[in-house]
Design a protein that fits this description.
The structure is a homodimer.
Chain A lengths: L4 E2 L9 H6 L10 H18 L4 E6 L2 H12 L6 E5 L2 H12 L5 E4 L8 H10 L5 E5 L1 E2 L4 E2 L2 H9 L4 E5 L18 E5 L10 E6 L1 H9 L9 H8 L10 H17 L1 H21 L13 E5 L6 H12 L1 E2 L11 E5 L6 H17 L9 H10 L1
Parallel strand pairs in A: 1-12, 3-4, 3-5, 5-8, 8-9
Antiparallel strand pairs in A: 2-10, 6-7, 9-10, 11-13
């Protein structure tokens, strides 16, 4: 018998009551019944984003929401700034370069947070910068960035602040309006406990001003068209109807638990995971760890890919390895979305068992779960 | 008690065994288990497209697949031709214009097929034309275009032929390779009996040559990146995993029935629908009607929107109205995807009942189902 556990930073487990909603007979997307559900979802997303601004929904991966933000805000020749310390921060650079916009970049060592001081300095010396792009929780390194302070810095300038919170949304504290975040991108398959296929973009009025003026080409991604359809409780093109209906159910669960309790749950699960790993003498990779995913350095001499493979193939437990330069060097345990205390114990226990069976030395077996449990209960 | 029936040209009904697949616990998209399913889906799509070429899968609506085709084939300044006689033919023009490519256009009266003679002439007098864009089955008018002949015409030139077969795929006969179609775009929520959220693009080697050289900007839509990932049984970005798993089930059903039988089933259902409508003294809108959807002119004095609304709200039966200039003037009964003979009788009967209750004259009640049944059984 093999049971499967998903402890990866997206897709994350889908609650059965959410999954079943997506299996109900499909509705047509231009009916009052679907319109009512769609409106509820948009309202629910406003709560999740903590915004009174515009929230748009796109049928695409999160990356689609990122590209949509770029083409809706910018025009050829625009000056922009990207602050990155990981794979997903770098994705902003790649998207921008695709549109022949060469961003100024502040790239920090991976594992560290982005450097707010340098961003502030850059903005002061270059008043032409139209937008600052960065990441909320950098999934590749397990780092969380301080968006509250960054928001205060950027709000003093004419630039808009554009945030990839694809993995952070509904897991790590975020206040779009209160923190002066102008554009925030999210996706369905992370904290929102849904299947992948939907991305979301929250926009402030300051950002919307740019949308009206932007000259980069856009058809499917066009925010103006989406906003216009929103007034009719519709999307411009056939949306992923079943995923939206399931999302409505997930948002109901989120509203019932409340965002504050969800953030606190993630904080506790993350803290327990970190304690469990440290009890095993393992070193955390992130200097400023997020509550989304815990990145752990592989013990000396062990390719983390081997551990990930063993857990997946032998125990049915999916965790993530390292990406790009971190391949083989770290593994990542997510505590994201539909996860409770017992799930964390499963994850830590699987790591302990894997390390033991791979012959790793230098740690006392069964101390990880013990350390975690002391925090969890 | 209200039962719901979906007789619209997308989304179409989803077989329960397909819907339930999408509710199973989600798999991670970078595992060998998902890789195996993804590979099966791509192979299955090759059968559906009738191609040995490249088939790519995008997480987006069908329109995303259309935009992706434009940006992957063309460069600024390219000369292209669009043949259109409906909303979806015109969509090619709008997408092209977004990228500042002003196409030559051959726009026919709606309800007629595209004009092959004019296309041939245009191609002969303008050898610079790089691509011809058109539609297989024009959903807005119920017309099918003769792609076999068009394929022969374009194959003699250096131009590639780009087809929107979003509503036609797996319903109306189509042979990508045999008919020399270079690019064919499909989507999940039509003949493929799945939920919306996936689009597909089949590409010939002739088309792939352009992909390598195209200069329009593309990141999420980049076919080169998708083809590279395909070799690893992956997609570049997190795909709509649950929709792909469900699609695998739908494709199994399609392979079992066989494409030839599916095309024949659609042909018979369409023929019965047309006979049913004509028995009610209603006029068909399309001169060259497709097997996907039957467009019917509203009886004198009746706004077709009223009929559509009555059927939906009072009988639980969704059919489609007219779009743009055809709003109020036609209604459309789809016989697309997971539909059998009895579904057709339901649709025709609903129209008869609606017309009667709306006080329409000039037809003999209960003759529509009778005429249809004589063809169906």
């Amino acid at each position: 018998m093999k049971k499967y556990y998903l402890l990866t930073p997206g897709p994350t487990p889908i609650p059965p009551e959410v999954a079943l909603e997506s299996a109900l007979p499909i509705l047509h997307h231009r009916t009052s019944e679907f319109g009512a559900i769609f409106t509820q979802v948009i309202e629910g997303l406003k709560y999740v984003f903590q915004t009174q601004g515009t929230v748009l929904l796109v049928t695409s991966s999160g990356t689609g929401g990122m590209e949509a933000s770029v083409v809706n805000l910018l025009s050829p020749g625009d000056k922009v700034l990207v602050a990155s310390s990981g794979v997903f921060g770098d994705r902003w650079i790649k998207i921008l370069e695709t549109y022949r916009i060469k961003p100024e970049t502040i790239c920090n060592e991976w594992g560290k947070a982005i450097d707010l001081g340098s961003i502030e300095k850059k903005l002061k010396t270059n008043s032409e910068i139209k937008a600052v792009f960065t990441t909320h929780t950098e999934t590749s390194t397990g780092v969380v960035n301080d968006l509250k302070t960054l928001g205060e810095i950027v709000a003093k300038t004419d630039a808009v602040l554009v945030i990839d919170s694809i993995s952070g949304l509904c897991a790590q504290e975020l206040h779009t309006d209160k923190w002066h975040l102008d554009v925030v991108v999210g996706a369905s398959q992370k904290g929102l406990m849904n299947a992948p296929g939907l991305s979301f973009v929250a926009l402030s009025d300051k950002a919307w001003n740019l949308v009206e003026k932007a000259q980069l080409p856009r058809f499917y991604w066009d925010f103006r068209r989406m906003k216009k359809s929103l007034a009719d409780k519709e999307t411009p093109f056939t949306p992923a109807v079943t995923l939206i209906i399931a999302l409505n159910q997930a948002i109901e669960m989120i509203k019932k638990e409340t965002l504050e309790k969800i953030w606190a749950r993630h904080e506790k699960l993350a803290r327990a995971t970190r304690a469990g790993m440290q009890a095993l003498n393992l070193e955390l990779f992130a200097q400023n760890p997020s509550n989304v995913v815990t990145a752990v350095k592989s013990p000396q001499g062990l390719d983390s890919g081997k551990l990930v493979k063993k857990l997946r193939e032998e125990y049915g437990i999916s965790i993530a390895g390292g990406q790009q330069d971190l391949k083989g060097k770290i593994f990542r345990l997510a505590h994201l979305g539909y996860m409770n205390e017992f799930d964390i114990l499963v994850g830590i226990s699987a790591v302990e068992r894997g390390l033991k069976e791979l012959g790793c030395q230098g740690f006392e077996f069964a101390t990880g779960v013990s350390a975690a449990e002391k925090i969890l209960f």
